[in-house]
Amino acid sequence: MDNNNVPVYKLNDGHTLPQIGFGTYQIRGMQGVDQILAAIQIGYRLIDTSTNYDSEGAVGEAIRRSGIPRSAFYVTSKLPGQYHHRDDALKMLEESLLRLRLDYLDLYLIHWPLPKRDNYVEAWTALVEAQKRGLVRSIGVSNFETAHLDRIIEATGVAPAVNQNEIHPYWIQDKLLQANQDRGIVTEAWSPLGRGSDELKEQTILSLADKYHKNAGQIILRWHLQRGVLPIPKSGSLKHQHDNLELWNFELTADEITAINALTKANGRVNNQDPNTYEEFN
């Protein structure tokens, strides 16, 4: 699909994001540049990176090599946990811009709340300031639970534009998705297909793939879209990159959405990363 035809979500700050993005976790170096550039050439414009992914340099280089104006892209990066104090956070955002060789970011997220350390409110105040300075257009969070969201909103009066969370058929996050929607926050999904191939082999998914003449990944990504979730799939494969954009020519029924929701598990996280306890530090 041509990028001009990818629908957008309107954010609570007036900016927009395409309804699907390209993830760059474990995509780095010169091979990473080639993979990201291939994704750009077939239509991706929302590129998701992070200081912790070590892919910011590759993202910036791919954007420059594409020959497409910077204004056509939506570039996201994320604040590492060890830099939650205000001055550190602002410097790390500047460092991300230097690595990307960009003048601004479209979206900057606090990567994890790290509530045991309890500095995420200070980090959020830094992002609010960075937005006022024009370093970033939209600000958001990642892996924040409802209590974390309410605390930063109460402290600053500013709601995140985006909350990027682990969401896939084994971990559907119904309550958190509703909490984000209630607060006017767009939900992004990392690991939207899960990790590994188990979810892609579920009979519920495979039956729908057969019905719609799609692959299992496309069924899951369409499920995200119909729940109002913005998926960020990662793929180094050009075929998968292309397939992941072919989502707007079919529609699942309400019963089919419910059937996929039923695949959720009590312990469905891919790596047991509970935001209330997870320590991001290497």
TrEMBL record:
Keywords: NADP, Oxidoreductase. Belongs to the aldo/keto reductase family. Signal peptide: none annotated. This is Aldo/keto reductase. Residues 20-263 form the NADP-dependent oxidoreductase domain. It comes from Leuconostoc aquikimchii. PROSITE patterns: ALDOKETO_REDUCTASE_1, ALDOKETO_REDUCTASE_2.
